[in-house]
Amino acid sequence: MTAQNNRRLPALICPDCHSALIKMENQALVCESCLFKYHFENGIAQLIGSKSSINFSELEVQDSVSDLYENVRYTVDTSNRYHQDSLEDIISFAQPNGDVLEIGCGNGVFLKTLSSRKNVSTLSAVDLSNEMLKHTESRMLSVDSPIPWQIVRGDGERLPFEEASFDCIFARGLLHHLPEPKKGAKEIARDSPTLHSLMALRVGFPGKCTTLEYLRLRRRLMGDFTTMQLLGLGLIQTLPLLI
């Protein structure tokens, strides 16, 4: 983690009871209310509480593909350019500003892209996979950016941040990985209460598959957002959730 300007990063809290964390001399973080102790691994806070339900098979997959993503996927020129273009499209559509959070940051490619945006004040990122976060930290440490940033290991259904901590939240390709996507959507709404719409990104073929994905998400998230922005390859739709 680094902080090179005077802007304070959003505070970390206990994901179980939402109370403040106290840093101990042994570098552990202890919740001042429930006294649950959170440790660090390779300098990254492990903010997974006792109430989290972890999909360990999903976690194993993400850990196993982290090096593949880093050493193969993003070293192929055409793949890298296509992926970067899609990230620029997301930024153009969402217009990130202020305190920004990425949930499910993977190996930090998008976080690095966000670190060069002038309207971004701070960057925070969460992922369940320590193997992914290892690459995220390495990538961010290589960036000469004045924007303060922090990365933590956390659960997308129980985020370790106070309410209304963020002006902009990204959750690219996240919800379908969560055991209960609706909980993940509620956490997004809790951390950014001014957010009234959800942007669901599907990088793939437009048309029938995209529509099915929208309907599946709509059933699970109805009532949490007034509209859903649905992006597919060559397709942008704004569809009402409350109909």
Describe this protein's structure:
The protein has 243 residues and is an alpha/beta fold. It has a domain at 56-195: Vaccinia Virus protein VP39 (Rossmann fold), CATH 3.40.50.150. The chain contains six helices and twelve strands. The protein has helices at 56-73, 77-94, 109-114, 130-141, 181-191, 208-221, and strands spanning 21-23, 29-31, 37-38, 40-41, 44-47, 98-103, 120-127, 149-154, 168-170, 197-201, 227-232, 235-240. The strands form three sheets. The chain has a six-stranded mixed β-sheet, covered by helices on one side. It has a three-stranded antiparallel β-sheet with strand order 1-2-3, with no helix packed on it. Helix 1 packs parallel to helix 4. The protein is globular.
Summarize the structure.
This protein is α/β, with parallel strands linked by helices and 243 residues long.
Query: What can be said about the biggest beta sheet?
Result: 6 strands, mixed
Tell me the CATH architecture of the domain at 56-195: 3-Layer(aba) Sandwich
Our Rg estimate from Cα atoms comes to 18 Å
The percent range for strand residues is 15-25%
Overall mean pLDDT score?
80
**Structural class designation:** alpha/beta
Total helical segments: 6
Write down how many β-strands occur, each being a DSSP E stretch of 2 or more residues.
Answer: 12
Give the helix level as a range of percent: 25-40%
Q: End-to-end span in angstroms? A: 44 Å
CATH fold topology of the domain at 56-195: Rossmann fold
SSE string, helices as H and strands as E: EEEEEHHEHEHEEHEHEE
CATH superfamily of the domain at 56-195: Vaccinia Virus protein VP39
CATH level 1 class label of the domain at 56-195: Alpha Beta
